[in-house]
Design brief:
525 residues, mainly beta, twelve-stranded parallel beta sheet, eleven-stranded parallel beta sheet, 4 helices
Length: 525
Amino acid sequence: MKKALVLLLLSAIIAGARHLDVTTSTWSTRLSAAVAGDTLHLADGTYSIISPSQDGTLNAPIVVQGTSRTATILAGGGEGFVWYPKHWVWENIWFRGDGSNYHLFHVKGTARGYLTWRNCHFSGVADKAIKIDHSYYTGPQVVFPDYVLMENCSQDLGYGGFMNNDGSDFLTCRGNYTYHHLSGGGEVLHLYFTKGGNAYTVFENNIAVGGAWIYSFGGGTMYSLWTKWRHDEETWGATNTPKPGTTGNYDYKEVETYRSICRNNIAINATISALASQATIDCEFYNNTIINCTGMLAKEFQNGRATNLRVYNNLTINGGDDLYVSYDGYSDGIVCIAEHNKALGTRTLSDIFVSVNTTDYSQSDWHLKSSAIATQIGTGIAPYAHPTWPAYYSLLGSGNYDFYGAQHSNPPIIGATQVAGTGIEESVASAANGVSVIDVTPNPANPTATLRLSLALDRPIVDILVCDIRGKHVRTLYYGPMESGQRNVAWDGRDHFSRRMASGTYFFRVSLGHDVLMKKFQLVR
């Protein structure tokens, strides 16, 4: 029998963990000497780019933490951090370029992944804040930059964009806010919230203001001639195109993004389209809210085509609702299902949403007014089931949550949000899905709570966080693969800033790709 693995990912309770105060004068020494489980607390000040080489571990990452983004890491041009090590977490830091930086982090194709940016701010980039390379390889490779988490970050876009993922499976971007796109400069290919995707990408609960395209699957890796993609063997049949020769050089790849989803996001002021799909297989855009955008979806096929692309339950306000091809090499035979999308045309936003702050959209209350649902928006369809997808990435119809963490009604409302006051409900998987939440102990909790989770199968991606009764994200506890068996995940009653949370109702949210489970408990001080 396997021993129960206690996942105490909070650095404060990892045996042997060190909390080290860092100043600008000790930055180089402390960073270079950090070991697994260390947390480096950066004092206010401006720090230089130094790229370390050592790894943390899954249960004991190396954490670099500022205080309310008052610690600044300044990139003076070029690529910023050139990154290879794994199991690092960056929290509460302002990464500031000078406008000429291509990237602030360039994660190389042979990097080892397991990277988190949380509550960080980015500015001053000419291309993307984060660039994750794809791997140039001609055979099996065991090292990839997988398991990347971007949450609750923000970016002053300027002439650049947020994320370019060409190499990471299991990338999740959630709760981020990008804004202040500048027109009249830069290159249009850079102006995305995200592009790329690889496999098993999730974009959820983000607000993105400005850019040419905003949320894009694909858009980069196809430009690399004579390279093979790690998912080629899985996807050739789905593309209905000839397979390249098994010897010699490969031509452009024909698939970029595979089995990925974009849900519960808000897109504002896209100059071309809110959503974009290039050469994709089994990808979905659903329950997004699109405001003041020229178009809803652009389909761009440089060297491939979209297959089984599903676009549904999206709400468009004050903009184009069209699905169009901007440049098209292989549009014949595309399989794109677009249904139950709603275009409201020209509307006053205050008639639709509780409150909209056009100075800072992240401070808006995007809950729908009940009158708008009844008279203008209507309901959509339940999320699709995916019988051919791996068991760990199947979709539970009951696990469908909105922008604020509230459970969608069935059928769900079109768009990213629901009426204010819609509650969060518990959702526990059946034995047929191979996972169940057993219990939270103690309940009521004080000062800590432990989630007991049972997995029948090994899972390549498990994402566990704590949220409050409104669905607001409090703290991420785990993001990565998990072996089968009983697993215990502990929370110390604090948020990402180490602040003690008040008494009240909280939830453990357990996400396994598409599956989302919620377990309620009480915290009593």
